[in-house]
C-alpha cells in the first residue's frame, strides 16, 4: 500500500511539473487565441514570439541581404523614363506590387488624382536679355505663370543672409530679377526669399564651381514651399474628393525658371554694376557682377497645369504581438529622368528589404512583435506628393499606430554618413552605426561609427530635418518620428534634378555601387528590425528636453515673463525622466505594461503638433521642427523683430504665440506623465 501511494504521488507530481513547465515556456511574450471545434471543445492556440536574440537576427539579416540580389533588383528597377503618372512609372509600380505578392505579403495600391505643372506645350520657357532670347528646356513646377521684367541682380545662393547682405550694401532687390546659384537651400526657399523682398522673378542655374557638369545641362525641380498637392492643401486628392477653390499658401507669387550654366555665363558676361561681395565671385563663371539698373531681362513661364493619376504601392509584414503598431519604410519611385541615385536605389532597397524580412520569417523563425509596412511612392519629385496625399487620406488611421518612418530616397551618393531625423531616433541611429561597416575605395571594411565617434558625433552626422527631406511631412504633419539618411561625400552629388542621374555617373562617383547599397540597406534594415523586435520602442523621449531647454534659453534672453515657459519645460523634463526610470524598472514580460509605455512614447511627437492651427493653413504643425507662425522659431523671429522696432512686429500677436507655445509643451508633458493623477500641472 505504501509503495502504491508513493507511486501515485510521484506520477501526480510529474504530471503537474510537466504541465507547469509547458505554461512557463509559452508565457513570455505570447499571443493566444481561443476557438472551438464542431463538438464545442475549446482549443487554445498559442503562438510564441521568436526566441532569436539580437545577434542572431542581425546575423541572419546581413547574410540574406546579398550584393548579388541587390544588383539584380537595381537592374530590374532601372528605367530611363518614369516621371510621375507616366506609363513608365506605372510599370515600375506594377513590378513592385508583383514582388510583394511573390513574397506572400498582403499588398495593395491606392490612387490619387493630383495637379502638377509640367513644361509648356512648346517645350521651353524663355528668358530675354539684351535682345537675345534663350529657350530653356528645364522648368520649375508650380511656378507662377506669365511674364515678368526687371533688372537682373546677382544674389549668390538666394539665402536670406545673402539678401540682407545686399540690403547692407544699399542694393534694393524690389522689382529685380534675381539670378541665384543652385544649392544650400531648396528651390522653393530661394523663390520664397526672393518674393519676400518683392523681387519680380528668379533665375536659378548650376554654377560650375558647385556642379561639374556640361554647361548645357537642363535642371528640373519644383518651387512649392510645402509638400503634397498644393491644390488640395490639408486633405487628400482622391477621385471622389470635391475640390474647393483653394490653393496652398506655399505656392509662389512670382515666376521662377532654371537656366543652363551656359546661359548664366552669357548673361553675367554682359552685366554691369558693381563687383559682388567678397566670396560671391568664387564660382566657375568667367566674371561676376551684381548687375546694373539697365540690365533688364524678361522671364516668360508658360508651364501647363494638368491632372495626373498616380499610384502608391504597399506591402505589409504583420507583427505577431502588436500587429496594429507598425513602422513604415518608404521610397520614391518616380524621377525627372533616369533618377538612378534618387529613386532606383531606394526602390531596389525597398523590395530587397521586403524579401529579406519575409525569408527570415518563413525560413528562420523570426517573428517580429510589430508590423512593417513597405511603401513605394509616386510624384516625389513634385514635393513628396504621393506620400503626403496618403498621410492626409489616412491621418486618423495612422494616429497612434504608425510609430516611425524610414526613408530610402537618395541613400547612396558617397561614403560619409549623414542623416536628418527626429531627436527621439538619435540613440537608435547611433547604436545602428556601431553595428554596420562600410566598404570604401580600397575595399577595406570599417565601422561607420568609428569615423564619427566622439562627444560631438551628432554635430558630425545629424542635419536639421528640412522641407526638402522626404521624411518631413511624416515628422511635422503627422507627428511620426522619422529619419532620412544618405551616404554622401563632402561635395554634393551633382546629378540630382537632371537627366544625368544615371548608373554610369553614379559608378564614376563611388566606383562600386553594390557594396554601398548593401550598407545603406543594413542601416535601414537594422533600425527597422530593432523597432519591431524589442519589447519597448527604441525611441528616447528625453532628447527633446535638451532641445526645449535650448529654445527656452534663447527666449529668456529677450522676455521678462518667461516663467510660464520655464515651468512647462520643467514639466516635460520631469515627465520624460520619470518615464525613463519606469522603462529601466519595467517587467518586459508584462505585455500590457509594455504597450502602455510604448503608447506614451508614441504620443510625444503627435503632442508637439500645435492643436491651435489648421492643418490646411499650416500643415507642418510641429512647434519645434515644423514651419509657420506657431513654431518656436517663429516666436524667436518675432522677438527679434520687436527688438529691432520692425513695423511688422505686434506685441499682442507675440503674447498669443507665447501662450500657445507654452501650453503645447505643457500639454505634451501632461500626456507623457500618463494618468491624470500623475500630471505635474502647477502652471
TrEMBL record:
Keyword Cell membrane appears in the UniProt entry: yes
Residue runs in coiled coils: none
Modification note: Stearoylated.
Cell compartments where the protein resides: Cell membrane; Melanosome
Domain PA: 163-212
Residues annotated as domain Transferrin receptor-like dimerisation: 564-672
Membrane topology: Single-pass type II membrane protein
Keywords for the protein's UniProt record, in alphabetical order: Cell membrane, Endocytosis, Glycoprotein, Lipoprotein, Membrane, Palmitate, Receptor
Main location: membrane
One GO cellular component term noted in the UniProt record for this chain: external side of plasma membrane
Domain of life: Eukaryota
Domain annotation Peptidase M28: ranges: 312-414
Keyword Glycoprotein recorded: yes
InterPro entries per the UniProt record, alphabetical: PA_dom_sf, PA_domain, Peptidase_M28, Peptidase_M28B, TFR-like_dimer_dom, TFR-like_dimer_dom_sf
Subunit details: Homodimer; disulfide-linked.
Similarity comment: family membership: Belongs to the peptidase M28 family. M28B subfamily.
Protein name: Transferrin receptor protein 1
Species the sequence originates in: Electrophorus electricus
Origin organism lineage: Eukaryota, Metazoa, Chordata, Craniata, Vertebrata
